[in-house]
């Protein structure tokens, strides 16, 4: 079984959230099958509304379209050893977001570091720590 597989719950006390990206709760679920990683997120945003979605990642280092909701945006994903998954989102050849997901040596903690430009055009960076459920 892949180290990432399973459900992870955000530990807000250990996380460093950006002021423009506050939320009340978040969970991530990783399912790894062959060369495909399915990442499902669920949570409650700053306004108290439920949000969820699923992204399919292909950690082969090649460009893949993200979704019809993000026209022109491609994602490049790759494994960096067994403990780290890195993603880079690009539009028109320009990096618009980067992320890394790293599982701790004991397999109990996942740290997500994300930086990029949000919908308003403002840059952001945050680190969210997740505990394995």
Structure characterization notes:
This protein starts with 5 loop residues before the first strand and ends with a strand. A ten-stranded antiparallel beta sheet has the order 4-3-2-1-10-9-8-7-6-5, with no helix packed on it. Strand 6 and strand 7 form a beta hairpin. By secondary structure, it is mainly β. The protein contains no helices and ten strands. Helix content is 0%, strand content 64%. The protein has a single domain (6-132), classed as Calycin beta-barrel core domain (Lipocalin, Beta Barrel). The mean pLDDT is 93.
CATH architecture: Beta Barrel
Strand order of the largest sheet: 4-3-2-1-10-9-8-7-6-5
Work out the oligomeric state of the chains in this entry. single chain
Number of domains: 1
**Total DSSP E strands:** 10
CATH top level class name? Mainly Beta
Strand content: over 45%
Q: Please, how many helices?
A: 0
Helix content range of the residues, please? under 10%
* CATH H-level superfamily: Calycin beta-barrel core domain
So what's the overall shape?
Answer: globular
Derived from helix and strand composition plus strand pairing, the structural class reads mainly beta
Q: Spans with pLDDT under 50 lasting ≥5 residues? A: none
Run of helices and strands = EEEEEEEEEE
Give the terminus-to-terminus CA distance: 16 Å
The overall average pLDDT, rounded, is 93
Largest sheet, in brief, is: 10 strands, antiparallel
Alpha-carbon Rg, integer:
14 Å
> Within the CATH hierarchy, at the fold level, what is the topology?
Lipocalin
